Amino acid sequence: MTIVDVPADRLPTTREISSRMSRQRRRDTAPEVALRSALHARGFRFRVDAPLPGMPRRRADMLFSRLHVAVFVDGCFWHGCPEHGTRPSNNAAWWAKKLDRNIERDRETDTFLTGQGWRVIRIWEHTRTDEAAETVAQALITIRDRLSR
Questions:
Q1: Which of 18, 36, 41, 108 gives 12 a disulfide partner, CB atoms 3.0 to 4.6 angstroms apart?
Q2: Strand 47-52 relative to strand 55-64: parallel, antiparallel, unpaired?
Q3: DSSP character for 10?
Q4: How much is the pTM?
Q5: List of domains in the chain
Q6: CA geometry: angle at 45 spanning 39 and 46, to 5°?
Q7: How many degrees, rounded to 5, is the angle at CA 86 between CA 124 and CA 62?
Q8: pLDDT tens digits for range 83-125
Q9: How far apart are CA 79 and CA 76, in angstroms?
């Protein structure tokens, strides 16, 4: 048996927490699926979990390629919701670094896509589906109408 020294800030706090976190869905969460269904019912078509142009290893929850719109449904915990986001007290330094980097990565993605002429829409997971669908639909209609002139 080989013993490996792992820095304390890299260790999961417990096997139970580690197991629970490893089961967190990266895609097809309930809020994403609900929003996709609502937009599909309104006649919109999109790519799901699509790679972002010019950004390796980054993906949009929904991508409207022709209209250059990227939609992200952000989880309150993982993306630092100002209303519902929490920070674990166990292994706090590691989690702070991890969650802060997630937020920083979101800003980098927004800046890059906006600079390339894309519209970025971020929806918090706690947003009601009908409100989220209306927000996205209005943006898509506005862009579509502008392009058809």
A1: 18
A2: antiparallel
A3: G
A4: 0.83
A5: 27-148 (3.40.960.10)
A6: 100
A7: 25
A8: 998 898 888 999 999 999 999 999 999 999 999 999 999 999 9
A9: 6
